[in-house]
Amino acid sequence: MDAVAAGVKAPHDAGSHRRATEERDDMWLAPGAARVQGAGIRTRPEAPDPLRTAFQRDRDRIIHSTAFRRLKHKTQVFIAPDGDHYRTRLTHTLEVAQVARTIARALRRNEDLAEAIALGHDLGHTPFGHLGEDVLRDVLGVPFHHAEQSVRVVEVLERRPHGLNLTAEVRDGISHSSWNRSLPATHEAFAVRYADRIAYLNHDVDDAIRAGLLRESDLPSAVGRALGSGSSARITALVSDVVEASDVTSAPGLCPGVRMSRSVFDVMDEFRTFMFETVYLGPAVAADMSAARRVLEFLITHYLDHDAGEAGGLPEAAGVVGDPREQRLVDHVASMTDRFAIGAYERLSGRTVDLTSV
Ligand code: MG
After folding, report:
1. How many Å apart are CA 283 and CA 357, to the nearest integer?
2. Which end of the chain is more exposed for a tag (fewer CB within 10 A), N or C?
3. DSSP assigned state of 32
């Protein structure tokens, strides 16, 4: 009589589910895709998870982080808009993850890795969008880039002081997620770079139309001719182009095995230039941004003038205890949501902030 017939439970094989996923991935993924086994490559060694691959585990750690939850109150384009339908940094992040997963799956790259990088790529974003980065650099005279700060969030500031202990591939992808950074190591990280740009251009034009700043017919004619009309058509055309132009067989190290055709890339560039001229640097957004700049300049100067622990000084919870004061100030200000920054400004300055755009 065998064990099942005898009603004896087979011994539990911890890790069999994860190994089955790893084996399935290994058979199905393209040659250039990232593969992971066991606990993955981490700064501090860990036991593998019984159910999830190392990349799935990283994705879950990011979703459960406090920095991820704060993204819901950080600006995408419009600061604290009145309407509930405008994007925030959180919904931007979710749209990037959706596009990145579509690209990764179509190209048989590692969808879990692409998702983890996408969900983590903006964790270090300052309040008030890119303006926050500019103000930190201008006032403190220190180099600051949100991609580097995102790495600092996952390596140090979450579960401080040891961070989330993510795999090397996810940290590399986050670190190189921005187009003005050097090239990343994996095809999945390239997919996230394209997904980020495809997502923000299209959801920002959608929000700008909602705010009455643009009409669909204002977009450059080349965009309509090449990509169609409306966000859905444009996203489909851009994602399809990445899938068609990429090389499924390219080996690791032959990046970019994930790419866009030259002609569509040029159209996307024209689209992006248009968005900078009319929306990102346009008058409606600029009015709120000058108010936001006042808020951040005040806060940084205030924290420089008041010692930690002193009334109105840098809170004890800011940054990592023992770090230089300037680093703790950068970590504290960069972590703020828009509404937290506005609240701190109003409390410490006794003045109110008037935001006008949408
Ligand atoms: Mg982004």
Report:
1. 9
2. N
3. T
Whether residue 200 has pLDDT greater than 90: yes
| Separation of first and last alpha carbons in the chain | 74
How does pLDDT run across 237-276, given as a tens digit for each residue?
999 999 999 987 776 555 568 999 999 999 999 999 999 9
Non-local (6+) Cβ contacts of 269 within 8 A are none
Average pLDDT, the chain: 91
User: What does the block give as tokens for 140?
Assistant: 């403190």
122 CA → ligand 1 middle, Å: 6
Tokens of 235: 């996203």
Distance 145 CA to ligand 1 centre (A): 12
Q: What CA–CA distance (Å, rounded) separates 102 from 199?
A: 12
Ligand 1 centroid, distance to 69 Cα (angstroms) = 15
- Asked if the model's pLDDT at residue 194 lies above 90, the reply is yes
Q: How far is the CA of 191 from the centre of ligand 1 (A)?
A: 13
- 272 CA to middle of ligand 1, Å? 14
* Residues 222 and 155: beta-carbon distance below 8 Å: no
- Cα-trace Rg, the chain: 22
For residue 94, pLDDT beyond 80: yes
Which pLDDT value is given to residue 1?
Answer: 46
CA 93 to centroid of ligand 1, rounded, Å: 6
Taking the model in full, what pTM does it have? 0.93
